[in-house]
Backbone:
């Protein structure tokens, strides 16, 4: 393991990597470097067990205005998530970059591979096509409605 002077973790510009010294509870220390796409602050990652570390970047979902008895409507995030990697995980699905997709708030499709994520995207896209057909049906129904 490499030793470096102990300095507070620094976050540099988006394209530069974040590197810091991390103390491992089971002994030793290790220099960690974020992948370019990681936007985690790692504020609480100055020490920990080796496999506690994750790198990741959240992505926002779209917000749909759902009925709320008190407020009329409330924004409900749909299809948010996180690209993530657990670099020291013994789980082969987690130690490579993967997606945690939240189809709706509070629910998660964990640890999607690129193919699984592509399949989910295709499902959503196909459903939007069906919704377009329903929209056309609604327009026709309204035009004919008396
Ligand atoms: Zn990171």
Residues:
């Amino acid at each position: 393991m490499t030793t470096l002077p102990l300095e507070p973790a620094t976050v540099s510009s988006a394209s530069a990597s974040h590197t810091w010294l991390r103390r491992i509870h089971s002994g030793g220390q290790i220099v960690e470097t974020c992948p370019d796409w990681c936007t985690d602050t790692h504020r609480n990652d100055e020490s920990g067990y080796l496999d506690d570390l994750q790198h990741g970047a959240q992505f926002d979902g779209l917000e749909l205005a759902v009925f709320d008895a008190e407020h009329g409507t409330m924004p409900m995030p749909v299809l948010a998530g996180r690209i993530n990697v657990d670099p020291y995980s013994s789980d082969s699905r987690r130690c490579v970059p993967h997606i945690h997709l939240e189809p709706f708030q509070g629910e998660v499709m964990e640890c999607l591979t690129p193919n699984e994520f592509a399949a989910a995207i295709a499902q959503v896209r196909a459903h939007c096509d069906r919704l377009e057909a329903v929209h056309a049906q609604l327009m026709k129904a309204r035009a004919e409605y008396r």
Remarks:
- The pocket of zinc ion is lined by residues 18, 34, 38, 40, 42, 55 (CB under 6 Å).
- The two ends are 78 Å apart (CA to CA).
